[in-house]
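hey m, so remember when u said the tokens were messed up on ur end? i reran from scratch. heres the input so u can diff it against urs
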Amino acid sequence: MGRPARLAAYAGLGVLGVCVAVAGALVQGGWFPGGLLLGLVGCAALFYGGVKATGTRLGAVVPGGVWLVVVIALSTSRPEGDFLFAAGVGPYIYLLGGAMVAVICATVPQLPPSGPNTA
């Protein structure tokens, strides 16, 4: 993968990080506990997919960092009193679980492909 293609992939992963953060924030509270699991699986799919698509650890760091910033921004209360995350254990599990999944995907060792034609 060339440098321009990889930069475009990182930009796309950043946009997907925003989408997964917003979707997960809405779903995790609406369908507890199934929505929480769905949100975390979406995070894991994005972060691990980013590693596999780009072939670098930055493929998980970019969407994970964007996801974390968006989730923290969504968790702050607004002057009108509106907020997206209710008080409870679900939002904390979503925040900490998603961050842990991002770290795990970014630090998992990259094993070379195995097979008869790997010379």
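this time it looks ok to me. The first helix runs from residue 3 to 30. if urs says something different then somethings off w ur setup not the seq
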